[in-house]
Amino acid sequence: MSVRHVPVVVIGGGPTGVTAATLLAQYGVDCLILDRWAQVYPQPRAVHLDDEICRIVSRLGLA
User: Per-residue pLDDT tens for 8-54?
Assistant: First the structure.
């Protein structure tokens, strides 16, 4: 197993963690997402999307 050094580690691969990692990547910041699940979690993690989330998703180019 090799060791990789990154300036940011994001804990959690849910909507918030993936959004944070995507924003960091857009600014050229390397990061690593760590999640407790080895595969995609089978249940929804976000149950409400407000105006701010819609703005962020749009900024990411996903809407």
Answer: 999 998 888 988 999 999 999 999 999 998 888 788 777 788 899 88
- The pTM of this model reads 0.73
| Sequence ranges of the domains in the chain | 8-59
DSSP per position, 7-55: SEEEE--SHHHHHHHHHHHHTT--EEEE-S-SS--SS-------HHHHH
What percent of the residues of the chain are helix, what percent strand, and what percent coil, each to the nearest 5?
35, 15, 55
One-letter-per-residue 3-state SS of 52-63: HHHHHHHHCCCC
Q: Measured between alpha carbons, how far is 53 from 63 in angstroms, rounded to an integer?
A: 11
